[in-house]
């Protein structure tokens, strides 16, 4: 697959918009002291089928570093996003039919609403488990960890689905 300059610029603009929104607005939202929207996961969810894995991981790592510098979480976001980026192609292949085009973009219109919501939910939940596990670095207070994972996952899934419906 050959990436074009327009594709790279589009990804850079999306990365910039999501980083600014996360750093300036979403990082300051903490519903019930545990649910924080993690909208930047949407960036990794949008990579199409058969996009080079190394490129997805590089994009995700760079975005994670940018977010880590704004949130003062050294390596936490970059490690979690890179982990998700490594799994994203395999998760997406679970929801794409084999006879579909090789370069399917994950969206509700291409996958169907049910499959897309399932795809987003799996990606967001895996990211949240890794992110909050690394953040707490302990399962001593497992209830708080569980509330953070479930609350942030639900809030992020709702935001991504809302953003996707606006994008159509």
Structural overview:
- With 168 residues, the protein is an all-alpha fold.
- The protein has helices at residues 5-24, 41-45, 53-71, 76-93, 108-111, 113-136, 142-167.
- The model has no long low-confidence stretch (mean pLDDT 88).
Work out the oligomeric state of the chains in this entry.
Answer: single chain
- pLDDT average, as an integer? 88
Total DSSP helices = 7
Shape: globular
- Rg of Cα set: 16 Å
Helix content: 55-70%
User: What summary fits the major beta sheet?
Assistant: none
Question: What sequence of helices (H) and strands (E) makes up the elements?
Answer: HHHHHHH
Q: For the record, give the distance between the C-alpha atoms at the N and C termini, rounded to a whole number.
A: 25 Å
The beta-strand count equals 0
Structural class based on helices, strands and sheet pairing: mainly alpha
The fraction of residues assigned to DSSP E strands is under 5%
Q: Any low-confidence stretches, pLDDT <50, length ≥5? A: none
Secondary-structure map with pairings?
Blueprint: H1 5-24, H2 41-45, H3 53-71, H4 76-93, H5 108-111, H6 113-136, H7 142-167
Helix pairs in contact: 1-3, 3-4, 4-6, 6-7
Structural features:
168 residues; mainly alpha; 7 helices; 69% helix; globular
Concise summary:
By secondary structure, the protein is mainly α.
